[in-house]
Sequence to fold (188 residues):
Amino acid sequence: MSNIEDTISDRLALRILSERKGRNWSLADLAARSGVSKAMLSKIERREASPTAPVLLRIATAFDITLAELLTDTRDDERYQRAADQPVWTDPATGYHRRQLYLSPRLPMELVEVVLPAGASVSVPASSYAFIRQVLWVIEGNVVIVEGDVATTLRKGDRLEFGPPADCTFRNPDASPCRYLVAVLRQR
Fold:
């Protein structure tokens, strides 16, 4: 692991532990609320396991925060941030690469850049959309978004406003990566 990945993994493990302890939850409490096993949560907090995007989304939803809020130190409320300082996280299972471009407690909006590797697929539970609205805009490549039973293929320049919360799958059907921007509006 690189030093940057070590730092992100350390921060993520500490953030999950801090959120859990701040609520006076045991590992069993978080497991019951998130649907993630107590053993896996313990491994994540001890940095013995790298959580996937769906696991992190279930944990964030249990805490009633967005994935961005889980991955980012919200005390870093800077109006300007260099690209090198923007939090980046990569899903160990799929290679899904997420850069947090904007997050502020002053404004209920988030901007996220995602690179979905060739042939990769990431599924997200409906519960992770319970208190957000989002719009996705494709910068490069193609992505298939499956919301519940509805599949939409987006190509470069296309955008999609997500509907009511539904289980979603993001799939890159191509032999090259897809890059897209997601604008998220927190509604709590």
